[in-house]
């Protein structure tokens, strides 16, 4: 949540864009950083539809130059599933 710390430690700038007017949003309404193996590698905008049990991945933005590998794909899948499970949205 500390933008200055994320910039200082990871050279990563982000804004939780729910406070940004919709036409000016770059990544999504409630976009948050993705920490993977000690690096901030991108951003995710997701929504938990608890009543229907659905975890919606609205957008996934990876940092430029990030190499997409099987390991990264697996890490992301597991992390997103854990997040969905925590929200009580198994689908």
Give a structural overview:
The structure is a single chain. Helix content is 27%, strand content 29%. It is an alpha+beta fold and 91 residues long. The chain is globular and about 40 Å long. The model has no long low-confidence stretch (mean pLDDT 93).
What features would you highlight for this structure?
91 residues, alpha+beta, 3-stranded antiparallel β-sheet, 2 helices, globular
The N- and C-terminal alpha carbons lie at a distance of: 27 Å
Count of strand segments: 3
Largest sheet: 3 strands, antiparallel
Proportion in β-strands: 25-35%
Helical content stands at 25-40%
User: What would you report as the Rg, rounded to the nearest angstrom?
Assistant: 14 Å
Task: Give me a quick take on this structure.
With 91 residues, the chain is of the alpha+beta class. It has 2 helices and 3 strands.
Write the layout of secondary structure elements.
Layout: H1 3-10, E1 31-36, E2 39-49, E3 54-62, H2 70-86
Antiparallel strand pairs: 1-2, 2-3
């Amino acid at each position: 949540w500390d933008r200055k710390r994320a910039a200082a430690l990871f050279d990563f700038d982000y804004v939780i864009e729910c406070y940004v007017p919709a036409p000016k949003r770059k990544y999504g309404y409630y976009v948050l950083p993705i920490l993977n193996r000690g690096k901030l590698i991108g951003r995710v905008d997701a929504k938990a539809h608890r009543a229907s049990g659905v975890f919606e991945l609205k957008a996934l933005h990876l940092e430029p130059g990030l190499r997409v590998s099987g390991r990264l794909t697996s890490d992301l899948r597991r992390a997103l599933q854990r997040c969905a499970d925590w929200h009580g949205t198994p689908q």
